[in-house]
Every structure is written in structure tokens, then in C-alpha cells.
Design a protein that fits this description.
alpha/beta; Spore Coat Polysaccharide Biosynthesis Protein SpsA, Chain A; signal-anchor; 13 helices; about 450 residues; 7-stranded mixed beta sheet; about 25% helix; 23 strands; transferase; Fringe-like_glycosylTrfase; glycosyltransferase; transmembrane helix
Length: about 450
């Protein structure tokens, strides 16, 4: 097996931070190839390969990869920015397998749990299959892509319009209700942390997702808008005040009722049971007006969002506020049919001032007050040609709604929903500054640390 038979695809993003990070990783991989005295393999960055922003969801990208690399390559290897790869060990692994068989492998597997975050979680059939963990890498054999997947993607769109849990949904699509190949576990493809004693035999390891980019953004440069309503003033707002409000320098609560004890601001938009688009756009307009302090960053959260402001300050130091940044947990809608990506609101939505100004200047607006604000924003940014930036550190749901392996290597920034939990205890377990934080200088290594 020669390295030129493997196509490496880094799941990169177009913001300057992620693009530079991915470029450094590409050079690191090519340097490994040179040291092995091998032919240099193709190392692709998704944001460079295609102009279709939705190709981060992988499946729409497969026909292009099949047409471009199907003749001369045997394997295609997808991995995230946080994956560390030992190419020499990877070659040893792949030589064990027959590339002429129609199969694909993933980093590790676990049975689907009933509370796994996914819009498929209600489906009883899922307990019969094995699915990849949410972090790390996965690989497809190009013979399988050429003969099966490329045409299937063209002829059979995804059954769901939404892309929420990427690897989960790809696994289901390939499994095809039992008609497709099973997933193949490979022990040496690990989710162990880089430098861990248990990682000695691993071809892949992972880093934490909280990068180090210098001094944290000052908390005075983050304006925080909390969306609430009268019926939750006594139930949810006190949780914010008991947990993360003390870390905020600039925070306002927006409601349908002006309550001086909090205090809240009535934006003149009636409360809606869902959507809240009217309220969110009113917040955006207030942010760029003289009524709000002038900051580089705007954070919009729900009143039942739990968030670590100090960790957000560290993360935002990696991003250039002069760019139109829309940051959070990314979902997709209709990506196989020219749809759009959006930041799901519950986990928190972060915007640079430039992004908000461009959005409001574009004339894009809500079609109704109760329209889904996060999806409308996604449509607006997509129409403007501004891609959203994904961070898996923001979470739309509670910690128990995620597989343990997904959270094991994270320093999370947010969780959402108070349902059936003690939110104060959850905050102190997962998001308090003395829980789970690591020396930032140890997070990145090699080329990727020089940002």
C-alpha cells in the first residue's frame, strides 16, 4: 500500500482561524509522508475543495470525490482538526484489509442509547446497529463510494431534511436498513488523548477542543443578551444569576414584560411559544444601536442555557472580530438540495459586530415573530455568502443527552435545558472554571500551535 492510494480529507472551515489551523495540519501530514520516503498523498481541506458550504455534511461531496480520485486511490480518510494521526501506523492497519471488499470502518463503536442526541433516536431499529462515536476519524473505501454511494447520493436524498448528528446520519445512510455494509471497528484507531499512556499503540489520538490563541477576550468586549419571558422570570432567571451571570460584565435580559427586580427590558415584541425570531432580530438591532455598549462580540442565549463565560473568552481569542463570524453548534437543513447551515440557538449563538451589521444591512428579516430565529439567521447568512462556524463545545441539550465518549475529551462551553435536572449542580459539574480546565499551552502542538 502506497500513501498515494489514500485521500486525506480534513473537515476544515473557512474562517481564518480554522483555515490556518487546517493548513498547518496538512503540512504536518505531508511532512510525515516525506519522512517515510513515500509519494505525497492528496490532503484536501473541505473549505477549499468545494464552493458548496453545505458539503461539511460529507454525503453531497462524495460524487465529486469519486469522480476526482476514484480511479487512482483506494481509501478516503475523513478527520477533524483535533485528530492527531500517525501515518506510519495507519499504513500498517490498512494493509490488513482487502480493499476490494465493500466495507467501511470507523474509529470505534457503541450501541445507540435512547438518550443519544439525534432526531433518529426514536427509531427502535437503531438498537440493532453499531454507530461511530462522535469524535475522531472515519474512513471509506473508494471502491464502495464509486460503486454504491456516489450514485445513491444522487438518486436518493436523505430521509430527513435536517443534519444534526453528522456521523450518526452517515452511518445510517450507509447501513441502509441492513442492506448496506456493517461498520468495522479498528482497535488502533483510538479516541485516547494525545500523550496518554494508553495511546502508545494508537494510530489516531485526539486533543481537547479548547485551543490556545493568546490572552482571552476581555469580558467587557462581550455583550450578552438573555432571552426570557414573564412566566420564566422566577423559574429560570434565578439559575442564571446563581451560576454564570457573575462572570458577565455586560448582560441584559429581554422579555415581554419589564421587571425591575431582574431587571428585564421589554423590546415591544410579544412572547411566542416557539421561534422567537422577532425578539432575536430586535436584540440584533439594539446591539448595533446607541442603546447598547459597543463591543466586538454579541452572545445570545436562552434563559435555560448554562454557559462558561471564561471558556468562551478563551475560545473567542482565536477568532478575528473584523470577520463576519457566526459561531456555535452547527446544524444543517436541506444540505443535499442546496439548503443552508445554521447555529442552533439553545447552545448559544455568538456573532461578531461585523456579522450583525452585514446581516441587518442585507435587509433580511423575519417572516413572522414566531419563525425559528436560528434557522432564519442561517438562511440570511447563507444568502449573504457568510458561512457559519461550528464549535462542538456548544450544546443544544443537557449533558446526559450525549454519549459519554463525546464529552470525555471536551472542555465544554455550554449546555441547554433545565428539564429533569438540577441546573445549578450541572453547571458546577461541567462548566465551573475549576472543573475540567487544563493548561491551555498543552492543548495544541507542533504547527497548529503557531496561530
Amino acid at each position: 500500500l502506497d500513501l498515494k492510494e489514500i485521500v486525506f480529507v480534513i473537515q476544515s472551515q473557512s474562517s481564518s482561524f480554522h483555515a490556518k489551523r487546517a493548513e498547518g495540519y496538512r503540512e504536518e501530514l505531508l511532512q510525515q509522508a516525506r519522512s517515510l520516503e513515500q509519494n505525497l498523498p492528496p490532503v484536501l481541506l473541505i473549505h477549499e475543495v468545494t464552493e458548496n458550504e453545505g458539503d461539511w455534511s460529507i454525503l453531497p461531496l462524495l460524487p465529486h470525490l469519486s469522480a476526482s480520485y476514484g480511479r487512482n486511490s483506494s481509501w478516503i480518510f475523513f478527520f477533524e482538526e483535533e485528530t492527531n494521526l500517525n501515518i506510519g501506523k495507519l499504513l500498517q492497519i490498512l494493509r490488513r484489509f482487502d480493499k476490494d471488499k465493500l466495507w467501511f470502518s470507523v474509529i470505534a463503536m457503541h450501541r445507540v442509547e435512547a438518550n443519544l442526541i439525534s432526531h433518529f433516536s426514536h427509531c427502535k431499529a437503531l438498537v440493532m446497529i453499531l454507530l461511530p462515536r462522535k469524535r475522531g476519524w472515519w474512513t471509506l473505501i473508494l471502491k464502495f463510494i464509486n460503486e454504491k454511494l456516489a450514485n445513491k447520493v444522487k438518486d436518493e436524498p436523505l430521509k430527513s431534511d435536517f443534519t444534526i448528528d453528522l456521523k450518526h446520519e452517515i452511518a445510517l445512510y450507509i447501513w441502509d436498513n441492513g442492506k448496506g455494509p456493517s461498520l468495522t471497528p479498528v482497535q488502533e484507531l483510538c479516541t485516547e488523548e494525545e500523550g496518554s499512556p494508553r495511546a502508545d499503540n494508537c494510530a489516531t489520538t485526539v486533543n481537547t477542543y479548547l485551543p490556545y490563541c493568546g490572552d482571552p477576550v476581555k469580558k467587557e468586549d462581550i455583550f450578552i443578551a438573555v432571552k426570557t419571558c414573564k412566566k420564566f422570570h422566577k423559574e429560570r432567571v434565578p439559575v442564571v444569576k446563581k451560576t454564570w451571570e457573575k462572570h458577565a460584565a455586560l448582560i441584559e435580559y429581554y422579555s415581554d414584560y419589564a421587571d425591575s427586580s431582574i431587571p428585564t427590558i421589554d423590546l415591544g415584541v410579544p412572547n411566542t411559544e416557539r421561534g422567537h425570531c422577532g425578539k432575536t432580530f430586535a436584540i440584533l438591532k439594539r446591539f448595533v444601536s446607541k442603546s447598547a455598549p459597543k463591543t466586538n462580540w454579541l452572545l445570545i442565549v436562552d434563559d435555560d442555557t448554562l454557559i462558561s463565560i471564561p471558556r468562551l473568552q478563551k475560545l473567542l481569542s482565536c477568532y478575528n472580530p473584523s470577520e463576519p463570524i457566526c459561531l456555535g453548534e452547527r446544524y444543517g437543513y436541506g444540505l443535499g438540495l442546496g439548503g443552508y447551515s445554521y447555529i442552533t440557538g439553545g447552545g448559544g449563538m455568538v456573532f461578531s459586530r461585523v456579522a450583525v451589521a452585514r446581516l441587518l444591512g442585507s435587509g433580511c428579516q423575519c417572516y413572522s415573530n414566531d419563525a425559528p430565529d436560528d434557522m432564519v439567521l442561517g438562511m440570511c447568512f447563507n444568502a449573504m455568502g457568510v458561512p457559519v462556524t461550528h464549535s462542538p463545545l456548544f450544546h443544544q441539550a443537557r449533558p446526559e443527552d450525549y454519549a459519554k465518549d463525546f464529552l470525555a475529551h471536551q472542555v465544554p462551553i455550554s449546555f441547554h435545558k433545565h428539564w429533569n435536572i438540577d441546573p445549578v449542580s450541572v453547571f458546577h459539574k461541567w462548566l465551573a472554571e475549576d472543573q475540567g480546565d487544563r493548561p491551555a499551552e498543552t492543548v495544541l502542538r507542533g504547527t497548529r500551535q503557531e496561530l
